[in-house]
From TrEMBL:
Protein topology in the membrane: Multi-pass membrane protein
Taxonomic source organism: Phyllostomus discolor
Domain G-protein coupled receptors family 1 profile, residue spans: 38-286
Listed name of the protein: Ovarian cancer G-protein coupled receptor 1
Region (Disordered): 341-362
Lineage: Eukaryota, Metazoa, Chordata, Craniata, Vertebrata
Length: 362
């Protein structure tokens, strides 16, 4: 079941693709059902932050757009695996869906890195590097990240990504063993797309934690909460992306035979499925855990409830029920998990009011 024979210049390689028909559909459906509405809400809250002139909203919106583009390709991949790895569409659609699948990883890594560095600068250097924490700078950096990944993606358009197996199935974006041209791009993806941003991410979070420890006016419970949030972010980041890139490097270094490709196939594709959960983790970590977003979400829920109640009764009702949280519409709002951290750096002489320098941290 699910055997695929891929022709190369040197040999025929038959690999059991059963994992594609069993585990992959469960993962894709889960990410579709959970990730699509979550990222739509995340996009809305990111838009609110841009309106509030908060540069974090730019990074959050770009991160969410990348996730949504990948999620939109999942129905095609779902049909592909349910058809026993038979691509029913054209060659160009295979290349586009493959690019959305793989490049989403590096776009996500890039914007997660931007968010982390922005928080580090706000916490550890609140009075310096202000020029890097503006809407204009965030937009410019976002354009560079997208351009870099689109140029890297164009490399795949130069190669044929649809081949026929022994059962006349059209296999999409799969070559076993690796083709020679794939090794170079894989080294680039590992070193530039993953390892370098990961080092920046680790350095930024290390600086954030050190800044928290140096804050003598912060309660221990608040420090513990900040550290848990920071560490949980790193754990999820590493869980989603580290296994895939380790196995990608292993394949690029040592996969030269069909036997090796068979031995690593299931582990490699399991790690590739793990990267899909980043689309669910992004809005959870960087949007739904902040108090600001909780209030906005409560307001949205109250408005929907008021609309439904009005529709049932046919009469006007209050826009917000008694006790519903009011919307927070300040420039200092942040749609991500480290908003609380800024208040820990307010000194007794600078209470963080509208006129204090600390208030600009957000």
């Amino acid at each position: 079941m699910g055997n695929v024979t891929v022709n190369s210049s040197s040999m025929n390689c038959t690999i059991d693709h059963t994992i594609h028909q069993t585990l992959a559909p469960v993962v894709y459906i889960t990410v579709l059902v959970v990730g699509f509405p979550a990222n739509c809400l995340s996009l809305y809250f990111g838009y609110l932050q841009i309106k509030a002139r908060n540069e974090l909203g730019v990074y959050l919106c770009n991160l969410t757009v990348a996730d949504l583009l990948y999620i939109c390709s999942l129905p095609f991949w779902l049909q592909y695996v349910l058809q026993h790895d038979n691509w029913l569409y054209g060659d160009l659609s295979c290349q586009v869906c493959g690019i959305l699948l793989y490049e989403n990883i590096y776009i996500s890594v890039g914007f997660l890195c931007c968010i982390s560095i922005d928080r580090y600068l706000a916490v550890a250097h609140p009075f310096r590097f202000h020029q890097f924490r503006t809407l204009k700078a965030a937009v410019s950096i976002s354009v560079v990240i997208w351009a870099k990944e689109l140029l890297a993606s164009a490399y795949f358009l130069l190669h044929k990504e649809v081949v026929e197996d022994g059962n006349q199935h059209r296999v999409c974006f799969e070559h076993y063993p690796l083709q020679p041209w794939q090794r170079g791009i894989n080294y680039y993806r590992f070193l530039v797309g993953f390892l370098f941003p990961l080092c920046l991410l680790l350095a930024a979070y290390r600086g954030i934690l050190r800044a928290v420890h140096r804050s003598h006016g912060t309660q221990k419970s608040r420090k513990d909460q900040i550290q848990r949030l920071v560490l949980s972010t790193m754990v999820i980041f590493l869980a989603c992306f580290l296994p895939y890139h380790v196995l990608l490097l292993v394949r690029s270094l040592w996969e030269s035979s069909c036997q090796f490709a068979k031995g690593i196939f299931n582990a490699y594709h399991f790690s590739l499925l793990l990267t899909s959960f980043n689309c669910v983790a992004d809005p959870v970590l960087y949007c739904f855990v902040s108090e600001t977003t909780h209030r906005d979400l409560a307001r949205l829920r109250a408005a929907c409830w008021a609309f439904l109640t009005c529709s049932r009764t046919g009469g006007p009702r209050e826009a917000y029920p008694l006790g519903a949280p009011e919307a927070s519409t300040g420039k200092n709002e942040e749609p991500e998990l480290l908003r609380k951290l800024h208040s820990t750096f307010q000194t007794p002489t600078s209470p963080g009011g509208a006129g204090s320098p600390t208030a600009r941290l957000a």
